[in-house]
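Ticket opened by: R.M.
Priority: normal
Category: complex prediction / small molecule

The reporter submitted a protein together with coenzyme A and asked that the result be attached to this ticket for the collaborator who will pick it up next week. Submitted input follows.
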Amino acid sequence: MLAAAVIGQYSLRTLRPADAAPLALALARQPPWADLGYTAEGLQRYLNKDDAALERWVLADGASVAGVLCLRQPWLRGPFLELLCLLPDYRGQGLGGLLLAELHDRARLSGLANVWATATHSNENALRFYRRQGYEQAGVLPDLILPGVDEILLRRRLRR
Ligand SMILES: CC(C)(COP(=O)(O)OP(=O)(O)OC[C@H]1O[C@@H](n2cnc3c(N)ncnc32)[C@H](O)[C@@H]1OP(=O)(O)O)[C@@H](O)C(=O)NCCC(=O)NCCS
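Result attached by the on-call engineer:
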């Protein structure tokens, strides 16, 4: 559903097999993945697995990876943003917002009505970020990843 694009001074391209191991290691070392018990091995398997419904994109800064976005489509009258991470050096510069704007535009062009995401209830930065990008809470998913931990289901309506 997404397509190669220029986002700010970076390029959005599909994830390559060689991206997976360093990305998985970086994700496994930081919240929320570290707190939820994800391992680098498991994340690497996820990034490389054979799954025709999972689009995997990288925001590239030349030869370096600035961020990653995984999108499950078809999902629920719109795609599910299964994984979104800007690596620490690239946060707070508006890149996450630009990435979501690109995703919303592409989904709208495909005639889709929603984009969905989840964030752990304690991930206040992510929840604030998504709210600012027009996402609304659509539900609470108890014990989805870890017992006792709620995931918040978020919905961005593309039609008003
Ligand atoms: C959540 C995340 C994807 C947001 O991406 P980001 O690129 O940092 O987001 P933005 O820069 O667009 O917005 C973040 C904040 O920076 C501010 N900002 C936007 N443009 C800015 C700019 N040019 N300069 C400085 N700050 C800016 C925004 O106002 C925003 O503030 P808010 O958090 O109060 O809404 C990123 O921080 C991240 O990967 N976090 C860790 C993983 C994670 O939690 N993933 C999501 C849930 S699983």
